[in-house]
Amino acid sequence: MSQTINDRPLLLHSQGRHAADIPDDEIWDSLASHGAILFRGFGLDADGFYDVASRFSRGFLVSPFGDRKPASDRNELQTVTVGQAGLSLHFEYGNSPLRPDLLWFYCRKAASEGTGGETLLADGAAIFEKLRPETQEALKARRVMYRNFVPPDAFEAILSKNETVGSLVGPDVVGALSRTQDFRVTETSGSRVVFEFVAPSVRPIGDAGRMRVCQNMFTDAYKKPTDDEADGSFSTLVTWEDGSEIPHEVLDDLKQVARSLTRGIRWQTGDFVLIDNNRMLHGRNQTSDPTRDIVMLSSFSSRFRLDTAPVGATREGS
């Protein structure tokens, strides 16, 4: 039977239950339907939040970048991007061939009332349905290419020598990606690694017959590189597969529709949220409260296998 799709995140109150009492299937089914679940009233601390996330995860991806800080003695638990600025809608690690399936956010301290800081969500399935027909056809017909420029140590940390990734796909991460995905390293030097990754602009969602926008095509989070300017920096160029620019009318349609469908989480201290990172874009409103404190985990789902898994393993959905 087809899964019912709802573009509103589910607000799940504890109603006297402990998080451990909620059956796993209830969580998975709710996530498949809503794309995101906000848990409220469960009284968890950060360690309890980590334990819940571990139930549904095969491994955590830790960001090596300086815009996040360790949040506890558990290395996987990190702050969200530091600072009070807003962040545009995006998929976490959307420019990587090893995108984590699940995102988890936990509110250690909510921003004061009226100071902003809401986490933003927009459903890629709902976005696709509201796009102009010509935009839909362009996205279905053409794939997206990310051309990434990163320092060598960052490339090793997030891909080639990442222990979690290696445990999931095998010790030769670059080889596994090259065999199973449209991925290639085009340059390696002492100052940078350049790698390209090509992926569909949209994908089906479950067995419901609907499509979802699933790429970081319209985020303003990426520095746009040229070869000279990208030395030693983190930069990403997003184009169609053949290297041509994505037309402004496609990008403008995506931005306007996404903006019209964006919903905000008004955090309460102790809340936590689970997000399908293959379907739901997320972002952040600016806040004037410097004490707002949200921590996060990025994880590979225990229910679905990676596309880069060993031969014989298949991905069943997302």
List the helices and strands and how they pair.
Elements: E1 10-13, H1 24-34, E2 36-40, H2 46-55, E3 57-60, E4 78-79, E5 87-90, E6 102-109, E7 119-123, H3 124-130, H4 133-141, E8 143-150, H5 152-160, H6 163-169, H7 173-180, E9 182-188, E10 193-200, E11 202-205, E12 210-213, E13 235-240, H8 248-261, E14 263-265, E15 272-276, E16 280-284, E17 293-301
Parallel strand pairs: 1-2
Antiparallel strand pairs: 2-15, 3-17, 4-17, 5-16, 6-15, 6-17, 7-14, 7-16, 8-10, 8-13, 9-10, 11-12
Helix pairs in contact: 3-8
Q: How is this structure best described in words?
A:
- Helices cover 24% and strands 29% of the residues.
- The two termini are 17 Å apart.
- Helix 3 (124-130) packs across helix 8 (248-261).
- The longest helix is centred in the C-terminal third of the chain and has 14 residues, at 248-261.
- The protein is an alpha+beta fold and 318 residues long.
- The model is unreliable at 307-318 (pLDDT under 50).
- It folds into 2 domains: 10-92 and 100-121 and 266-301, Double-stranded beta-helix (4-Layer Sandwich), CATH 3.60.130.10; 128-254, no CATH class.
- The strands form 4 sheets. Strands 1, 2, 3, 4, 6, 15 and 17 form a 7-stranded mixed sheet that branches.
- A hairpin with a 4-residue loop joins strand 11 (202-205) and strand 12 (210-213).
